[in-house]
Write a structure and sequence with these properties.
By secondary structure, the chain is α+β, with helices and mostly antiparallel strands. The chain has helices at residues 4-18, 44-50, 64-75, 155-180, 192-199, 233-237, and strands spanning 30-32, 77-79, 84-85, 96-102, 105-110, 115-120, 139-146, 183-187, 205-214, 242-243, 276-277. Helices cover 26% and strands 19% of the residues. The strands form three sheets. Strands 1-6-5-4-7-9-8 form a seven-stranded antiparallel sheet, with helices on both faces. A two-stranded antiparallel sheet has the order 2-3. Strands 10-11 form a two-stranded antiparallel ribbon.
Length: 284
């Protein structure tokens, strides 16, 4: 039976996904997450077999319980006595923070309190990638490295360690989604400076990766490309051919279908007609 605490937390988070942020966050901007499930799911080898990237997302919001389980699986605390996490980090710096971008704003995941801390009420999902699907995915996770937690390591070492640590978290999310039947894809193709500005990050914070998560959706049918065709011989002969001479612009010129771009120059042809150049027709 679900505990009273989990029921109350699930109700509050349900409002988070459906109501303005200010209506459900406390004075500190924090929203409690339901207690995560730490048992069950598919066997590991089944999840490994089904792990994949998908860019097709339903716009339906994740349930509070699923979002809670997702964040715990990604980088939650699995050893409360030591503060150990579900993913490793270099020197146990735990320098990666997970930000959660939804339609109602963006939040910082506080693993120790297993809660979301509101950071902004603006929908920044479209800034988390350079492909159209990111704006509609219900959840976009943003992995941010805090270089201030990484001691005296050199800048290039910090970048290397942060990338490795974020990759481990990303794989946790992949395996969780494979177990739960969710769609997900991770990426580094994003405008990091623009996203960092929108999030109000400090100078020592660096965006490493972003990862979309949601229910599987149906990809819109792309427009079908025009079929290739070769003009019939009679079409070639009935189309004005190019006047011999250099083109008037830098663009490639179609010898068969392009209309004349300049008046025909005087031709030395004794017949008084422009000299014709017949070329192989272009395939479309």
């Amino acid at each position: 039976m679900m505990s009273v605490a989990r029921i109350v937390a699930a109700g509050a988070l349900g409002l988070l996904l459906a109501a303005p942020v200010a209506a459900i966050a406390d004075d500190l901007g924090a929203v409690a997450l339901p207690t995560p499930r730490m048992e069950g799911g598919k066997p590991l080898r089944d999840a490994l077999r089904e792990r994949r990237s998908s860019r097709e997302f339903s716009r339906e919001a994740l349930s509070p319980g699923r979002l809670s389980d997702l964040l715990w699986a990604a980088f939650g605390i699995n050893r409360p006595d030591t503060g150990g996490r579900t993913a490793p980090s270099a020197m146990n710096w735990q320098e990666i923070d997970i930000y959660v971008a939804t339609a109602d704003g963006f939040y910082l995941y506080d693993a120790r309190g297993h809660r979301l801390i509101r950071k902004g009420a603006v929908d920044i999902r479209e800034l988390t990638g350079q492909q159209p699907f990111v704006a509609g995915a219900p959840v976009n996770l943003i992995y941010v490295a805090d270089y201030g937690r990484m001691g005296e390591a050199r800048g290039e070492d910090k970048a290397f360690y942060a990338a490795a640590d974020a990759g481990a978290i990303s794989q946790n999310v992949y395996l969780f989604c494979a177990s739960e039947g969710l769609a997900t894809v991770v990426r580094a193709s994003l405008d990091a400076p623009a996203l960092a500005k929108a999030m109000g990050l400090r100078s020592e914070q660096r965006i490493v990766l972003a990862q979309s998560v949601g229910l599987s959706g149906t990809k819109a049918e792309p427009a079908k490309p025009a079929a290739k065709r070769t003009p019939a011989p009679e079409a070639i002969w009935s189309t004005p051919a190019r006047v011999d001479g250099p083109p008037t612009s830098g663009a490639p010129e179609d010898a068969v279908t392009a209309p004349p771009q300049t008046p025909a120059p005087k031709s030395p042809n004794p017949l008084g007609q422009p000299k014709l150049t017949i070329e192989k027709p272009t395939e479309y």
